[in-house]
Amino acid sequence: MYRSHRSRRRVLRRLVGFTLFACLAAGGISYALSRGGAVPSASAVSTFPAARSGSSLSAADARAMLADPRMVLVNHTHKMPEDLTFTTKECGSATAINKTLRTEAADAFLAMQKAAAAQGVTVWMQSGYRSVEYQTVLYNNKVKHFCSKGLSEAEAKQKAAAIVNPPGYSEHNCGLAADLNSPEHTALDEGFEDTAAFRWLCAHAEEYGFILRYPKDAEAVTEITYEPWHWRYVGRENAVLLNRSGLCFEDAIALLQRIAAGEKING
User: Fold this and answer.
1) 227 annotated active-site
2) Is the pLDDT of residue 33 over 60?
3) Among 227, 237, 250, 263, which one carries the catalytic annotation?
4) pLDDT surpasses 50 at 245
5) Who wins on pLDDT, 24 or 38?
6) CA proximity to 159, closest of 146, 141, 172
7) Which of 12, 20, 62, 182 would suit a FRET pair with 159, their CA atoms being 20 to 30 Å apart?
């Protein structure tokens, strides 16, 4: 499904119309570098230039991207929609804590996992969909941990939120986020970036609709520390465009909102 001719044609049409390839920023999520397995980082750029000279992403195009349910922004200040409903499917490893993702994301992950295996790379889905109740437990435990270190409750909550989003404010709650690891490095920490699995993901994850959600140098915007293990499903076409933008997800959404409102963006 994800590699069909129809899907590829649809991607190409969007790339011809408003590809983000030209707006790679110095230090940004460089497509050329990421295809070679370099560690992505994030840096804001000012526009969504198109392949056609003098053309840019239209307000209608931006509104369409923002309306895509796979592009929902969930973070510290944007809570998961209260009426969000979806089905889930199991795709986690035998040792996974949370074994499911939203069905479309799970199918994409399984296809990606199979493709990686065909190239001798093992990628595991270690933590996917979490209920809000489960997220509450994780967050409260992290707050207690920092309180035990001598921080005030307010300080502990702030510190905890930089690692585990509060309940309802985590992408895991909407079934689109996957914490990935491999036999090379089973811990969910920065050591994962030194694995063949991470290098493969940097080169190929967008083909299956996944982006690195919390890249290096984007902490001031995402308010989450660099997480090479945390990948977000947005759909293949969106992933291709976002990776070419040089923007972290928050900055991309903010820019799309400006364009959708009719603001003229100078690149």
Assistant:
1) yes
2) no
3) 227
4) yes
5) 38
6) 146
7) 182
